[in-house]
Amino acid sequence: MAFDVKDKVVLVTGANRGIGKVTLEEALQRGATKVYAAVRKLDSANSLVAEHGDRVVPVRVDLDDPSSIAAAATTAADVDVVINNAGVMKTASAMSDDAIDALQFEMNANVYGLMRVAQAFGPVLKANGGGAFAQLNSVASVKTFPDFATYCASKAASYAITQGLRSSLGDQGTLVVSVHPGPIQTDMGSAAGFGDIAASPELVATAIFDAIANDRFHVWTDPMAQQVGAAYQSFAENVVEADMQESLG
Predict the structure, then answer these.
(1) Where is the Ketoreductase domain (predicted)?
(2) Percent of the chain surpassing pLDDT 70
(3) Which domains does the chain have, with CATH numbers?
(4) HSE on the CB side for 103, CA within 13 Å?
């Protein structure tokens, strides 16, 4: 189900900055005819429209607001590729006083938000021939870092949902991609204190569309992520990506 974004329509959540912004730009560079910039505040995409003209169409998407996602799916009824990039992070260990509040906040955006986007846009992708759906997960989905334990838990859950979507959406001809960056130079990465170890967001954008073009489920986007991915590869191929229905039946 490899898929070429040239002459296709793409939607990117959280498109106004960081990974989302460079992903939108990468889609345009690869020949997408139009990219929906899915953002919480429409005016935050003004600079993108000013730069790229009518190839960028702002649409309101707030992962906390299911009605905004449903409305966006109606507006973007011609979309072929959905990149669910938007997410949140709190700095909270499992023992932090605010750990449960932090986890609830992260789960709502990173997991329930993903599910809302998939449920809203899955039928749209099916109607348009299948297309592709990419979810921004993280190396934190397979390795917990103590100071970000709640974030890691939410990303582990979003990774689990993404695995389920690989089968559910795959049945309708939709390619699903699970993207696992390490520390990246974004506002979120800066707030987390990643500093000099953070990689360029352009690496993530390139890796997303390379994976879509080459029918790869797991994407390890940068040097740190690739180290994790190399260690995880056997499990990924032989368990996560394997058809285990017979052995479980």
Answers:
(1) 8-187
(2) 92
(3) 9-241 (3.40.50.720)
(4) 16
Quick check: 3 and 10 in contact, CB under 8 A? no
Backbone angles phi, psi at 200, to 5 degrees: -70, 140
| Both structure tokens of 126 | 């099916």
HEC assignment per residue over the chain = CCCCCCCCEEEEECCCCHHHHHHHHHHHHCCCCEEEEEECCHHHHHHHHHHHHHHEEEEECCCCCHHHHHHHHHHCCCCCEEEECCCCCCCCCCCCCCHHHHHHHHHHHHHHHHHHHHHHHHHHHHHCCCCEEEEECCHHHCCCCHHHHHHHHHHHHHHHHHHHHHHHCHHHCCEEEEEECCCECCHHHHHCCCHHHCECHHHHHHHHHHHHHHCCCEEECCHHHHHHHHHHHHHHHHHHCCCCHHHHC
Q: Tokens 């889609």 belong to which residue?
A: 27
Residue 189 CA: distances (Å) to CA of 70, 148, 183, 186, 193 = 30, 12, 6, 5, 6
Q: What is the pTM of this model?
A: 0.92
Tokens encoding 129: 């021939």
pLDDT tens digits, residue range 169-198?
A: 999 999 999 999 988 765 554 454 455 556
Residue type, 149: A
